[in-house]
Amino acid sequence: MSPTTLAWLVLAFPLVGTVAIGLGWRLLPGRSAGWIATASIALSFVGSLGALISLLGRPPAEREVVSTLYDYASTVGVDARLTILVDPVSVFMMLVVSGISMLIHLYSVAYMASDRGYVRFFSYLNYFVFSMLLLVLAGNFMPLIIGWAFVGAASYLLISFWYRRTTATAAGIKAFVMNVIGDAGLVLGTYFIFSHVGTLDFLKTFEAAPRAFSGHQGDLVAGCLLLLVGAFAKSAQIPLHTWLPDAMEGPTPVSALIHAATMVTAGVYLIARMHPLFEQAPAAADVGAIMGCATLLVAATIGLAVTDLKRVIAYSTMSQIGYMIMGVSSGAYAAGLFHLYTHAFFKALLFMAAGSLIGAMAGIQSLDRMGGFRRAMPFTFGCFLVGGLALSAVPPFSGYFSKDAILVAVADRGGWHWALCVLGYLGSFITAVYTFRMIFRAFLGPPVQEARELERGHLHHADVPVNPMTGEEEDADVGFPGPEHHIAERSPTMRVAMGVLALGAVVAGLVEVPDVTQAIERFLSPSFQGSPLFEAQPPGSLVALGLVLGAILGPAGIAVAWMVWVRRPGTAGRIRQRLSGVYDLLVNKWYFDELYDGAFVRPGAALGRFAQQTFERVFVDRTLVGGTTGIVRAGSAAVRAAQSGFLRYYAALLIFGVAAVALYFLILG
Amino acid sequence: MAEVLFFIAGTGAIAGAIGVIAFRNAFYSVLSLVFHLLSLAALFLLLRAQFVAAAQVVVYAGAVMVLYVFVVAYVGGESSLPPVGAGLVPLASVFAAALAVELLIALLGSGLAVVGSTGAAFERTFGTPAQIGELFLTKFLLAFEVASYLLLVAAVGAVILARRRRGLPEEPGEPPRHVPSPGLALVGTMAETVHALPSSERARTHQGGW
Amino acid sequence: MAIAWYLAVSALVFCLGAGGVLIRRNPLVVLLCLELMLNAGNLALVAFSRGHGSADGQIFALIVMVVAACEVVVGLGLIVAIHRRRLPLDVDELSELRG
Question: How high is the ipTM of this complex?
């Protein structure tokens, strides 16, 4: 089968899954909805593998295949077609998305088993996978924008999955609003680019770009910056990042799938896909690199201070995406996508393990309440370790090679990019610190009550379910988490999923060891032909330096974490007291939320109040509407006075009229 | 001779008109109008309109005025109200006078030749019933027919306006009961065709339209 | 006599009738004044007919008489109906036709 046929099938399976589950939920017995959803994604994954094989069967020059299914509108130069582009980048993304999604679906079958909204969950998950696949397979700006918007919608639906929880719905709205800002940026950027290139098709755009923008560099930079707005909103980079930590209100599989492995990487994919435009507009690319670097540092520092388990992992996601954005903005396309691929493994693994740990804590997510689970949950502990080591870029785990590849490629750009590289390594060090802070606090030290109960074989159960953030009481009916909690140690499906990911986290990096196996770079090269930045190979000495530095910094960070949180337990408290200002800044997430609240939310609310109370009530209602009706009413009353009902009055009017007309004719006639 | 007759008839016409508007008693007004009509008939004769004069006397003074007399007899000529509405007299006088002045100016100042002349050359057949009849049936046939239709409509209208409403008999053979009119609350004929006031006696027994 | 005299009489009677409509309160008398106006019109018509020498004006006058008769019939029917309702026969009181 041709790659495009397989790609259409890959798109079709999740769509069929979501529709079937969504419409036929009454007919599905028991927990079969989960298995149907998992099966559809598994079929998608098989299709992606088939597409890979089929693509590899072609010579490298022919590995960009386009297929159009439906011509939505081709008028006035706007060629809005449902086109997919199957090339190495999209096949790569397809594999990552469908593979990780399949494992997360498998995990969710067990994790969400007692939730009343089980069927709805899987329908939404399949819908999300469909949207993400549409996004990465798009060969035309139109399906890209459609997929972009759909994943935003899926994110909203899944974040506010437990919809009776007010914090969840508020978080969903926040995520959606910020995503819409990104959507607007994306559409406007598309317009800027389209207005010069005259086509929405990707390949044709890239071909026509050098000519079309030769005198309009400003427009290209503007268009690319707007695309960056879209990328930043979706990938939670500064300044559009505040939604990601709040998005942890969703169930853990959602966090694993959407907010770690796939949706937030859409921005990285976008920049990599649009690389010809970004290479022509280096100003925009530089903005992307700088913001990516800033995000990775800010997020890493916040990760040192927050105490909610899932939020620590969320900030680490933000930080790692910052690496990827920095990489693809600086021309390290293969490295950036490589890090995307390895990050998907270990981040999803960390989230799954976190879900297991939270299940053992009966829904509590605060690190302050956790401790000493090492003996009670060995499998979860092992997964955390594997994921943490990969995240901290300890050799030979996968994260080591990928993060290193990015930083070396960035340094190779020369000039001020050296600063980005240095900051990247600093961030890498801090990453190791906070990752192992989390692991040590949760698993080492004296066991807490829940851990001791679990060691004796009893899974802790909360008497009254509460909201982990606010402590409000809840129940276990639909709209809230189910009554039972599931941990990996007791659930084979969860163990299978986590095991596969753990294996990937260990070995996935070996496909792109520098100068040994450059499989990903070679695979992706047909997509990046003609790109000088892609071709540039850093010198061997730089690569070696980078490998060594990375190998040192990772374990160094772990050592620091060990000292502060395990060997000398009071150290963290003392540091906090001495640097209380810094600590406050970090705990309050660098006050971004407060800034946005003051700059946008409050003025918006005030504007709304003004519009309703003053403008609407006084001006529109009283003056415009009331004034108009008042004038009409007064006029009618005045005219009505002529209808007095008195016959003689009417007659007088008549005769007066006749006399007037006669006078007129006398004078003029 | 004709001038003398003209002045007598003209004066009589104007006097009759003044009498119509001046008398308090409506009956006297009617009689005054009859006098006015007869004077007008004389004027018509002076204008050699024989048939019109005869029709004026027979139809207008004879039939229409008799109708008026009957109604005044039924209604009553005396009324307790002052005959002239206060406040409107000076205004009405002004309007009417203004109108009169204008008309007179229009007439007397007009350049129409016919106004100044004493009339066209006289033909023997002018104004005769024969001529009128011939014109009615040839040149003005449509007007003739429409006028007869109008008369029919008026007659039907008069019947409708003047009928009494009665309740239907409860059993066949019983004479219809007289139903008192609803009084001031319901005015106009519209109220009778609508089954208003379900609480009233009339509504209970009133079964249908006619 | 010149036609103008007849027309002058007609104008005077017409204005007297108009004034009467405005002044009198009894609807019966108002109808009478309307008759005055119609007759004034008739007189003018016949005068002009004599002036032109064609009988068209007289035909017109006859039709006006028919119309006047019909109008009187309907008007008097109304007055009779009003009287039967025990309503005051006063034009100023009968003022329901208002907005």
Answer: 0.92
